[in-house]
Amino acid sequence: MGLFTEYDLIQAISGTDEFGHSKCSISINLERQDADGNLKKIDDEFVSEKPVVQVFKQAGGFVLVDFIFDDINDMDLHIIYSYLKKFFDSTQSVSDDDLDFPVLSVAIVPNDLQGEYWVLGNNPIFYALTPDDEKGEPRIIRMAFIQQEDKDVLPNFLFLTSLEEELEKIGDEEDVDLY
User: Fold this and answer.
1) Which of 51, 50, 33 is nearest to 41 (CA)?
2) pLDDT band at 68 (very low <50, low <70, confident <90, very high)
3) Is the backbone of residue 113 left (phi > 0), alpha (psi -120 to 50) or beta?
4) Distance (Å, rounded) from C-alpha 99 to C-alpha 168?
């Protein structure tokens, strides 16, 4: 396939295919992790092929991700929104003495790339239910993530172009825990 870039991956997941369907599948997990980032338990998980996804890289290391639904009554919209609400509510009750912490993971996998490439976002810093224009009904879930470039900091948003490339970016393969 040759060199596959972040831009290529954004194009592979954003918008609709020639039949008007979403170009990707999404998975949302509510988890608990310990202070070292080890998975303690999965509270909830949900997979959907319904929303059309749009990804926008912003200045300052931010990434906006939109999940666009056909209408406000879509059950998947309500489920995903409830996961976001549950995650943000649970982060309000975290203390320094807690042994584990809430994590919300969003995986976006292009339909045409056989799972070889994907996008992973953890712990969005913001979410909203918004209309597509000032007169429309709110049918877009918008999330903001921080995309950190520092290899010593675990990023909240990754464009995973290949497992080998990511391992090279992170460092020695023996130090990587891919739960």
Assistant:
1) 33
2) very high
3) alpha
4) 31
- In one letter, which amino acid is 78? H
Q: Are strands 39-48 and 24-34 parallel, antiparallel or unpaired?
A: antiparallel
Task: Express each pLDDT in 97-134 by its tens digit.
Answer: 777 888 999 999 999 987 788 888 989 999 999 998 88
User: Could you give the angle at the alpha carbon of 122 between the alpha carbons of 119 and 125, nearest 5°?
Assistant: 120
Domain residue limits at 11: 6-175
Provide the number of structural domains found in the chain: 1
Residue 1 within a domain: no
Residue 27's identity, in one-letter code, is S
For the chain, strand residue ranges (E) read 24-34, 39-48, 52-58, 62-68, 100-110, 118-122, 126-130, 140-146, 157-160
